[in-house]
Amino acid sequence: MDSFFVDLHIHIGRDWNGKPVKITGSKTLTLSNIFEEATYRKGLDMVGVIDAQAPAVQEEMMDLIERGQAEELKEGGIRYQNTVLLLGSEIEVYDAACSGPIHVLCYFPTMNRMRAFTAWLSQKMKNVNLSSQRFYGTARELQQYVKEHEGIFIPAHVFTPFKSLYGKGVKETLREVLDPDKIDAIELGLSADTDMADQIGELEPYTYVTNSDAHSLGKLAREYQRMALKALNFEELRMALHNQLGRKVLTNYGMSPAMGKYHQTVCAKCLSPAKVNASVCDACGSKKIVKGVKDRIEELESSTQKKERPPYIYQVPLSSLPGVGTRTYEKLIDAFGTEMAVIHEAAREELTAVIPDQVAERITAMRKGTLTIQAGGGGRYGRIQ
Predict the structure, then answer these.
(1) Is residue 286 part of a domain?
(2) Is there a contact between 277 and 298 (Cβ–Cβ < 8 Å)?
(3) What is the rounded CA–CA span in Å between residue 238 and residue 182?
(4) Of the residues 277, 296, 312, the one at which a domain ends
(5) 3-class SS at 290?
(6) CA distance to 82, 135, 353, per residue, from 360 (Å)
(7) Per its UniProt entry, which superkingdom is the organism in (predicted)?
(8) In Å, how far are 13, 59, 182, 361 from 17, measured between CA atoms?
């Protein structure tokens, strides 16, 4: 069994015709650029592109396959150089059972399965060419389709205040909206970690995944996991999500919850900390209070889980570390090849041969999860002190 770095939530900003897919995504966030960034700079072994339902993205994928630059794998997935891409789709569900909209991730093993999904969605969605579009059906109907067509179903960034399962989607339990037996994993998102999620007893059966939700190339591997797999393909991932035959998540790497822009309850106008049940902001009088993930989880807290989980290591993107500007970043990539090599493999003395000792110390502190963080909230990210 080998270990691999995996990020399962990456958007497409523009298709190969230059048209937007994820409207808020970077223009440079194209399929080809994702392959290049993941393989040659980030060092990711497996990536999930979650806008693969868009016909133009499928056309570009098929073009790469037909020209011999990519290969569709028998066990599911698309190989490009040393990286395997999984075909996914982020979908917004807001049916009668939902208290608010939720985002979910649906993955399929082959191009044929994804094209069939696009055809099905076109009858239940206004625009399959764009990311994260509203699904006009029930969440359980969507789950049923995914399961019947060999797919993987994962609720996305489940604690963020907007468009997530626990943020807006349900009042108390996921059973209000979803079939618990048709969930393959839970994506924690950028404002919660394993310990926080483990306060909710009904999540005990599920594997946790940590993904970047990248809207730009630089954000790839903002969060990711190391997995034990025998090979890089869709079926190996499925087994890892269900801890089968030695396949499993070994480590989750993600930002400290305090770095998440929705961690604490704050005033949406002035970003001052606020009490969770406050009707107005004490600082500016605004009535727009954004409930933080920390407070929402405390509302939902139920029986404490006993399940043994992989370690959750706090990290930030390499370029977000104080002292790692553009020139320093390029020095590190030139010296060690990829971000994964810098973060996980380069010895302290090797780092100090390339960069100042203070910056090398921050990188080693990040490996240990000991960076000091100032909490974020209300749409503003936390920061390293």
Answers:
(1) no
(2) no
(3) 13
(4) 312
(5) strand
(6) 28, 47, 10
(7) Bacteria
(8) 11, 10, 36, 44
Structure tokens at 99: 């208290």
Specify the CATH number for the domain of residue 366.
1.10.150
3-state secondary structure of 132: coil
CB distance 90 to 187 below 8 Å: no
Q: Do 91 and 205 fall within a single domain?
A: yes
Alpha-carbon span 202 to 213, nearest angstrom: 24
Q: What are the pLDDT digits (tens) for 99-114?
A: 999 999 999 999 999 9
Give the model confidence (pLDDT) of 72-100 as tens digits.
999 999 999 999 999 999 999 999 999 99
Whether residue 204 has pLDDT greater than 80: yes
**Cβ atoms within 10 Å of 351's Cβ, excluding its own:** 21
- Residue 50 and residue 132: Cα distance in Å, rounded? 9
pLDDT for position 367: 84
> In terms of residue numbers, what domain contains 327?
318-373
Q: Is residue 55 part of a domain?
A: yes
In 3D space, the residue among 198, 217, 94, 91 whose CA is nearest the CA of residue 154 turns out to be: 91
Measured distance CA(249)–CA(227) in Å, rounded: 4
Q: Where are the alpha helices (DSSP H) in 111-233?
A: 111-121, 139-148, 194-197
Distances (CA, A) of 300 to 167, 278, 384: 10, 18, 29
Say yes or no: 237 and 334 in one domain: no
Question: 336 and 205, same structural domain?
Answer: no
Do residues 250 and 341 both lie within one domain? no
Q: How many domains does the chain have?
A: 2
Q: Indicate whether this model's pTM tops 0.85.
A: yes
| Cα 323 from Cα 330, distance rounded (Å) | 13
| Residue 367 CB contacts under 8 Å (≥ 6 apart), including other chains | 313, 343, 344
Q: Express as a percent the part of the chain with pLDDT over 90.
A: 76
Residues 239 and 346 in one domain: no
